[in-house]
Design a protein that fits this description.
- By secondary structure, the chain is α/β, with parallel strands linked by helices.
- It has eleven helices and 15 strands.
- The strands form two sheets. The chain has an eleven-stranded mixed sheet, with helices on both faces. A four-stranded parallel sheet has the order 12-15-13-14, with helices on both faces.
- A hairpin with a 6-residue loop joins β2 and β3.
- The longest helix has 18 residues.
- Bound molecules: threonylcarbamoyladenylate and magnesium ion (MG).
- Threonylcarbamoyladenylate (TXA) binds next to β5, β6 and β9.
C-alpha cells in the first residue's frame, strides 16, 4: 500500500515491520534499528550479505550521541554543516548499537535525513531506523514510492509516499582513518568539493586489498538496469559500433544528430548537473520498462555531481557487455 499517513508508518515500525521510507536521497527500506529480528528481515528481503552493514537514521544530531562516542572534530564540523542532509558519517559505535546493524564492525554509519516526512516519522519513534536503499541487492535505487512498491509490494505492508526524491542519489559516506583524516567511502549527493571547502582535502577511497575491509559493499556491480549498459566517452562511436536493434541513449544535455531511430533521453537540457543527478535513477527505471537491447550512457563532466553520476554509471556497466 502506498500512503502519506505518517502515524500509520510509525505504528507499523513500532510493531517491528518494515516500510518504504522517503528520504531526500532515495527511498529506504526502514525498520527498527535496535531490533535484531527486524534488522535480519531487512537483509533477507534485500538479499543482502550480512557483512554489508546498514545506515542508522536519527531525527537530529543530538540523537546521534546515543549511538556514537565523541565525533572526530571534522565530523562535527560536517554534521553541523550538512545535517539534516545527504551525508552519512562512519564513526565509532556506542555499545547499544546491535552488531546486526554494523556487520560486527566497531563503527556505525549514521545520518539525519532531510526529508520532512522521514523526520516526522523519526520524531514519533523512540528508536533509530536502519534503512538501506529500498531495492533488491544490485538493482536500481528507488526515487519514487511506486518504485518501492514495484520491488516489495508482496513483502512490506506500506510505502510512505513523500514524492520524488530531491537529490536522487544516495548520501555521501565519509569515514575516518585511525589518524582521524576524512575518507570518502562512497560518492553521493554531497560533493567532494563541498566537503573540501569545509575541512580541507579529503581522500577518496580507492579499491585495494586492505581498504576493502573498511567499506564492504562498495564494489562491483550496483544500481544496474536490466539491459546491458555501456558507459561511453564517445557515444556516437559506440552507437555506430552497436549491432543491437533497440538502442537507448542516456545523455547529459543535447541529443546526437542521428538518423537511425535511436531512443535518446537527455537528463538536463539546460546542462544542470543537479537536475541530471535528480533524474538519473528515475530515468534508468523508465528505461527498464522500455526494455531496450542496450543502453549507452554518456560520460559526464568529471566534477561535482558529474563525478558522482559517472561513478554510478560505471557500476551499472560493470561486467556487462564490455
Ligand atoms: O542515501 C542513503 O544513504 C540511503 C538512504 C535510504 O538513507 N541509504 C543507503 O543505504 O544508501 P545502503 O545500505 O544502500 O548503503 C549503505 C552503505 C553500504 O554500502 C554499507 O557498506 C555502508 O553504507 N556502511 C554501512 N555501515 C558501514 C560501516 N560501519 N563502515 C563502512 N561502511 C558502512
Ligand atoms: Mg544501496
Amino acid at each position: 500500500m502506498i500512503s502519506t499517513d505518517v502515524d500509520l508508518a510509525a505504528s507499523w515500525l513500532r510493531k517491528g515491520e518494515l516500510i518504504g521510507l522517503p528520504t531526500e536521497t532515495v527511498y529506504g527500506l526502514a525498520g527498527n534499528g535496535l531490533r535484531d529480528e527486524t534488522i535480519k528481515r531487512i537483509y533477507e528481503i534485500k538479499q543482502r550479505p550480512l557483512i554489508n552493514p546498514l545506515i542508522l537514521h536519527v531525527p537530529s544530531a543530538a540523537d546521534c550521541q546515543t549511538y556514537t562516542y565523541q565525533l572526530p572534530e571534522k565530523a562535527s564540523v560536517l554534521a553541523s554543516a550538512f545535517w539534516p542532509g545527504p551525508l552519512t558519517l562512519v564513526v565509532k559505535k556506542a555499545p547499544g548499537v546491535p552488531d546486526m546493524v554494523t556487520g560486527g564492525k566497531d563503527t556505525v554509519a549514521i545520518r539525519v535525513p532531510a526529508h520532512p516526512a522521514a523526520l516526522e516519522v523519526l520524531r514519533r519513534l523512540d528508536f533509530p531506523l536502519a534503512a538501506p536503499s529500498a531495492n533488491p541487492f544490485g538493482r536500481i535505487s528507488p526515487t519514487r514510492a511506486q518504485h518501492v512498491q514495484d520491488y516489495f509490494q508482496e513483502t512490506i505492508p506500506m510505502v510512505l509516499d513523500g514524492g520524488p526524491c530531491r537529490e536522487g542519489l544516495e548520501s555521501t559516506i565519509l569515514g575516518f582513518s585511525p589518524k582521524q583524516e576524512p575518507i570518502v567511502l562512497r560518492l553521493g549527493a554531497v560533493t567532494v568539493e563541498s566537503l573540501t571547502d569545509l575541512v580541507g582535502p579529503v581522500r577518496i577511497f580507492q579499491r585495494n586489498g586492505k581498504e576493502e575491509i573498511l567499506a564492504p559493499g562498495m564494489f562491483g556491480k550496483h544500481y544496474a538496469p536490466r539491459a546491458p549498459l555501456i558507459f561511453s566517452d564517445d557515444v556516437l562511436h559506440s552507437v555506430l559500433r552497436q549491432k543491437a536493434r533497440n538502442i537507448a541513449l542516456l545523455l547529459f544535455e543535447k541529443p546526437l544528430p542521428l538518423s537511425r531511430g535511436v531512443y535518446q533521453i537527455c537528463l538536463s537540457p539546460k546542462g544542470d548537473l543537479r537536475e541530471a543527478a535528480a533524474k538519473l535513477y528515475e530515468t534508468l527505471h523508465d528505461l527498464d520498462k522500455l526494455e531496450p537491447d542496450v543502453i549507452i550512457a554518456q560520460q559526464f563532466p568529471q566534477t561535482g555531481l558529474g563525478m558522482v553520476i559517472n561513478d554510478k554509471l560505471k557500476r551499472a556497466a560493470f561486467q556487462k557487455h564490455q
